[in-house]
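Explain this protein:
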Amino acid sequence: MITTHVRRFTTTAALASVLALGGVAVTTASADAAPLAGHTAAAQAAGFYCGWDDRATPPTISRGSKGDTVREAQCLLISLGFGVGQHGIDGDFGADTENAVKAFQKKYGVPGGADGVVGKNTWYGLRNY
């Protein structure tokens, strides 16, 4: 399933880049590689997305949170080289995801410190670093 979401990101990012430069893009991507409903080239060009949650600043999540917003954070963490545990992108914000968030926050000096909570500043970092 991660392959589909990475493919969505790659296809959308490539399309947004071409369109941002004033070109015309032709793609042969499969239907499952299409971005989720509501995605726009402008929104995609504004930051990195995995396809689970396309909001620039999703709600704050922390240990115990579950769902697609957690999957989005896990995917972004993995794409930046921070492992989220043996279960990977499972939508469950457990100890391994919390440790990955803390490591990310520490490495990039996210304002607010390494608290393991994915709030506004951490979302910005995940989307833009």
